[in-house]
Amino acid sequence: MIGLIMFLLTLILLMAGFPVAFTFAGVAVIFGVFTQGVELFAFMPYRIMSIMQNTILMAVPLFIFMGIVLQKTKLAEQLLEAMGELFGKVRGGLAVSTILVGALLAASTGVVGASVVAMGVISLPVMLKNNYKKTLATGVICASGTLGQIIPPSIVLIILADVLGVPAGDLFKSAVLPSLVLVASYIFYVLIIAYLDKSSAPALQSKNHNLKKSQKYLTLIKAIVPPILLIVAVLGSIFSGIATPTESAAMGAVGAVLLAVIYQRLSWQMLHAASVETIKVTAMIFAILIGATAFSLVFTYNGGDILVEDFIHSLPAKEMSFILISMAIILILGFFIDFVEISLIIVPIFYPIALSLGIDMSWFAILIAMNLQASFLTPPFGFSLFYLKGVAPKSVQTTDIYQGVIPFIIIQVAVLLSLIIFPTWYGFSSF
Amino acid sequence: DEKKPSSKNQHSDKIYNLKLAETWPSNFPIFGDATKNFKKLAESMSNGRLKIRIDSKNKHKSALGIFDFVKSGQYDLGHSGSYYWKGKDINTLFFTSMPFGMITSEQRAWFEYGGGQELMDEVYGKHGLKSIIGGSTGNQMGGWFKKEINSVDDLKGLKMRIPGFAGEIMAEVGAKPVNIPAGELYTALDRGTIDALEWVGPSLDLRMGFHKVAPYYYTGWHEPGTELQFIINLKKYRSLPQDLQTILTTAMKLSAYQMYAQSEYESAKNWENMKKTYPNIQVKTFPQPVFDAMRAANQKLLKKLSANNPLAKKIIKSQSDFLQKARAWTAISDQAYLNSQSK
Amino acid sequence: MLQQKYSQYLEKILIGLLLLTIFNVFIDVLLRYVFSNSSIALQELEWHLFSSLFLLSIGYTLQADAHIRVDVFYAKFSPKKQALLNLVGLTIFVLPISLLSAYYGFDFAYQSFLLSEQSGDPGGLTHRFIIKSMISVSFILTIISALIFARKNYKVLAQ
Ligand code: NA
Ligand code: NA
User: Please, what's the b/e burial string for A39-65 (b: 16 or more CB within 10 A of its CB; e: otherwise)?
Assistant: First the structure.
């Protein structure tokens, strides 16, 4: 009961606008001290130490750094504009390019923050300049920037692999087809909207129409090849056994700096600015992890874990109803709680039930990952929405972003449902 | 005088709530069953006067914080492995299982009759703790290898995930111990980022999927009889009535007995399963020269441990003396019997 | 002046930690793949650097007002109202958790110091208390940054 009150109060207090991390931790201290006494917080160092020793999380600062270096060196921007050119007079081309670049970035980073921030800086101004609707532009960026969550390598899949006892490598393979379907659905939606509503996504005004065809293709190749090479380097280092998925993040970071050297865009100022930005994004993510662990400390030691567990165990133990209800719970919780906490607190409660029902764990993991990805997009507390707001021009309101992501959440849920109803399409055995 | 029995009764009705922290995640097979059994036994033997609450890793979030939790009194009891504390007190190393050491039957004889428990009391007493055996996994397998080991040279430069003291022996003979988080072990082994790893045995290895990517399953040498441990906060222990103290330690030993039986059962069952489903798994044993090199490395490291540490020296001597005595008997009893049956 | 120096030094340390983390992981990969070698100490150094990085960056980011907020209402508040909210939040949310974590973090590190705790893995790092003490250091820095940020907000409020 105390857990429930604490939970609701936190949601209300978060709306006041004080930093999320400290609101979580602050409410935890107030409730913890009154219900369990000050000594409860002697557990804090142990919990923080567990985050410190979770070397998988090391990928966070490394991938963010890579993304920001790509952004600051304008290599990612060139890529985007070059691809936009390819669409010529077709409406929505820039948005489709954004989605494709988002997917490529996603294939080399496992971190949503990095790609949303990068995509926001690179493509939002370009789309707004070309008279895209603010809602469509922000929706596309949030959705495609969040693809890193499901397209391997992905942090969430690594965490879920651990929690559900499935090899991470297996999960990465299973995630490929569902991700492709998702990307295709995004593109399909954008093309339809652009066709139906002429003003929403006008065609790009070419900068290069004076150039000869051969010159045009040369600029295109020059812009597209380097980022692709980087992606090959990162993914390749995992597949060839040179590095673990976490270590591949460092390969990407070093690779991005090397690209900057090759293109003569490395400067101390650039490195300094990229580092400072990386540090801030890292701090905000880890502060939330620490705030959330304080929150779950007080929540679980007040019996909140038993509350949730009893509720989950009271659910009907039939395969399909279990899947549907567990997905609904994760989706709703995802509106409010961070994906790491869901993976580490809620999923372990589902695990034994799923195990006893004989559910294909890879399938279950992909369902959860797809679901959690939607949670990044759901207002009011979706991470992608925060990140984009952080880098968007003043003219873009938080409510524009909230409106913009709604169609993409619907697409996400539709793909999720198709995964649930037709698992064999995606190569899963379900039960 | 007539009041005395009733006040005694009141006293004996008092309920003692004890909290236990375990290293394992909730519902972890076998290891987690040991604490569940312990709770059931302690509560029913005490007729409800003991109430045990088990907090798994999911709740306290610190798998290797158990020693400190119980030492500081944040928890009254713990369930873990003694060798996890070797970085805090090197003398805790000896009470789980030692490379080339005793098998479970021998080691339990050492604990009960060969002075093992007394030595363990001496080591843990210094930290305000008491330790009781917590369940054996039986003989652990030597691990999964991508290539065959035919000579000591094959170990040179071998990238292997093998933590703790066994890792030191491997390093001594030329292998390169590597730290890889559990979640990435499969990918690392699959892609050849590492060449080998050790885990537990058939009872727990199957769910990790290593057999799909490394064909050679080597027999054990480094953990011949891995015994988990219960730890008790001594101050708390002494505050309990005598009968509850006995119930507590008896319930621990009984659940340790059950866990050993369960491990043997699960290993046998899973091994049968593995063999049937994955006929390509090849069980191998290191050739004698490899064992000789590792044994020499073991001796060298043990000598180093004894050098400036009288208590370690005492424990090592007690173990090796007892091993010699017990092994002579094992040789003409179990070993002779098994040899006679296998041909 | 002093505040500026403080955040400049902190920033330099943080940038150093970030670049060292990247370099360290890269070197470990290179060592293992190219030279078939590996050092547990170097691998442990990875999480020592990485965790120091995120621990020490929390206060720095608070001072720079870059932590995530739900700004639907906050963005519409007047500067004075924002400053007031920040002062209240710093007092009832930031200070208590920081004080508690710093306090218990000290004992956490001190116990480790008393046992001369070290890594249990072959060739691992010794002096575990140093990295454990980063928890206390992190929250002490967060308190200092909170005070600086509070002063900034107080100035807005007093105008
Ligand atoms: Na990804
Ligand atoms: Na083992």
Answer: ebbbbbbbbbbbbbbbbbbbbbbbbbb
| DSSP states along A153-208 | S-HHHHHHHHHHT--HHHHHHHHHHHHHHHHHHHHHHHHHHHHH-TTTSPPP--S-
**Cα A37 to Cα A34: distance, rounded to the nearest angstrom:** 6
**Nearest CA among C54, C64, C62 for reference residue C134:** C54
What is the average pLDDT value for chain A, to the nearest integer?
Answer: 83
Q: φ, ψ for residue B97 (rounded to 5)?
A: -170, 140
Q: What is the pLDDT of residues A337-361, one digit of tens each?
A: 667 667 766 787 788 788 878 888 8
Chain B residues with CB inside 8 Å of C124's CB? 87
- Predicted TM-score (pTM) of the model is 0.87
At residue A244, the pLDDT reads 82
- Token code pair at residue A76: 């990612």
Contacts of B71 in chain C (CB under 8 A): 111
B312 in the Ramachandran plot: left (φ > 0), alpha (ψ -120 to 50) or beta? alpha
Query: For chains B and C, what is the number of CB pairs under 8 angstroms?
Result: 55
- Cβ within 8 Å of residue A238, ≥6 positions away: A153, A244, A245, A248, B187, B191
In chain A, which residues have their Cβ closer than 8 Å to the Cβ of B196? none
Domain limits, chain C: 2-158
Pairing type for strands B129-136 and B159-161 reads: unpaired
How many angstroms separate the Cα of C107 from the Cα of each of B68, C104, C110?
Answer: 11, 5, 5
- Reported as half-sphere exposure (CB side, CA atoms, 13 A), residue A333 has a value of 22
- For A311, B308, C46, the CA distances from A349, given in Å and listed in that order, are 10, 48, 32
pLDDT number for residue B147: 93
Percent of all residues in chain A with a pLDDT value above 70, rounded to a whole number: 92
Cα-to-centroid distance, B140 and ligand 2 (Å): 6
Of the candidates A243, A249, A284, which has its C-beta nearest C68's C-beta? Answer: A284
Lowest mean pLDDT: which of A2-11, A365-374, B51-60, B68-77?
Answer: A2-11
Q: What is the pLDDT of residue A336?
A: 62
Residues 364-423 of chain A with CB under 8 A from chain C are 380-381, 383, 386, 389-390, 398-399
B289 lies within 8 A of chain C by CB: no
- Residue C142: helix, strand or coil by DSSP? helix
CA-to-CA dists, residue A397 to A365, A400, C81, angstroms: 35, 5, 20
Give the ligand with the smallest distance to the CA of A154.
1
> For C94-149, what is each residue's pLDDT tens digit?
999 999 999 999 999 999 999 999 998 888 899 999 999 999 999 999 999 999 99
pLDDT digits (tens, 9 = 90+) for A360-375: 888 999 999 998 888 8
Q: B195 near B158, Cβ under 8 Å? A: yes
State the pLDDT at residue C102.
97
Residue A17 sits at φ, ψ, to 5 deg, of 105, 5
